[in-house]
Amino acid sequence: MAIDPETFKFETPQFDPRFPNQNQTKNCAQNYVDYQKCIAIKGEDFEPCKIFWRTYTSLCPVDWVEKWNDQKEAGKLPFKLD
Amino acid sequence: MKLKNMTNKVRGNMQLHPFHLVGPSPWPMFTSFSLMNLALSMALTSHGYMGHNYFMFLAMFVVFYSMTLWFKDMMAESSYLGDHTMAVKRGMNQGFMLFVVSEMLMFVSLFWAYLHSALNPNVEMGMMWPPMGMEAMSPAELPLLNTMMLLASGVTMTYAHHALMNKDRKNTLYGFMYSTMLMVVFVFCQGLEYSFSSFTIADSVYGSAFFSATGLHGMHMMMLAMMLAMCTWRVYNYDFTNTSHVGAETTMLYLHVLDMMWLFMYMVMYWWGS
Amino acid sequence: MFKRLTQRQFVRFNSLGVSKHINEAAFHPSKINKAAGEAFVKEYTEKVHHSEAVTKLWKRITYIVAVPALIATAIPVINIELKHAKHREHLAHLPDEEWPVQYDYQNIRSRNFWWGDGDKTLFWNSSVNRHITE
Lengths: 82, 274, 134
What we know:
The structure holds 3 protein chains of 3 kinds.
Chain A: H1 25-42, H2 50-59, H3 62-73
Chain B: H1 8-11, H2 27-46, H3 54-80, H4 86-119, H5 142-165, H6 169-196, H7 204-236, H8 246-272
Chain C: H1 2-6, E1 13-14, E2 17-18, H2 34-92
Antiparallel strand pairs in C: 1-2
Protein name (chain C): Cytochrome c oxidase subunit 13, mitochondrial
Organism (chain A): [Candida] jaroonii
Protein name (chain A): Cytochrome c oxidase subunit 12, mitochondrial
């Protein structure tokens, strides 16, 4: 997803009561999973999916996302996406 | 035996306390060296310093050999020399209980390892337990039969115990033989279950924790089968009396404790964890 | 030395020669606790007597409860296992491409095992376990 510097608003995700701990690893992973599920059903342009994208890009280290994307390409992503 | 006729002259030939002061014996030293030999050869073999495993098997053989010699001496002291008074027997039972407690704590650590990974499965394994793509064993199949066999062994053990206390040789022998057979079949079925398993000990923390815990239990079961076979043999040889059978008592305690351990393991690792 | 100390024996000799108590009874009749002895014997005989009925009970439980329960469990389990055996037969001939995906945490080999060919774990069964390397 390309970022337009004109319209981009710098936001961090709000508090999520499912992940009340300081360690936000699972929040990151869950939002990555939810995003994958969302776009699998609704397509990448579906606006409500973007909340997940914004959350995980904000929370996850880049190399985690890269690793997951590589695993997904190889069909080895260890998450249930259905 | 009429004690009232015993004079001080005769009494003076006997010890004035009920404890058994063991004579000089080579077995503690021999066993220590053989155990050190086993530890060293296992470590060196598994880290690839040996290139073969003959030393490891030799060390294992020597450990079993030293155990056999030491236990042989103990059986002679108890059955033939009469060194095992009531106080000595109490002491040995207490010592065995301490051993059982330490064993329990070893199992606690493995349960801890399992539950640590299972209660909050990490992101690398897909945040689920068992991890993505791993097929847990079904608790309603062979493990259920194993559970039934262990429950049945508890029953046959109690049968043997009461028959032993009742000086009922035939039923004691039957009870011990049934228990031994159940243990042997249990170990066999566990071996089948392991070789049919779709995952191995090298498949994620699930495989590691599962096989470490059930494997440790399985090794204890092999030991228990040997202990029960020994008990059967000793009953057959008239080694036990209805009041003096520490070997049988410790074996029974061990069997019940390991049965309970299996029940926990079955409930947590096979049932809840699948 | 310690054995000598701990197994202190009755002093047979003193400076005057043999102790004058040497031929006296070691346990004076007045010191013998007869009640305790009888209680011990009573407890012993009661235990033996009591365990007769208990033996019968557990013998019955063995044959009437444990054996049928074992058989009742064994029959369905053996049937299921035979079914699984057929499934394993099928799995053994599956090509590598159709084998389920191996995730990164599966088949971990940080170095060779020291047994066999170095790749197979203990209890390895090639019809259900496969280590696919590209």
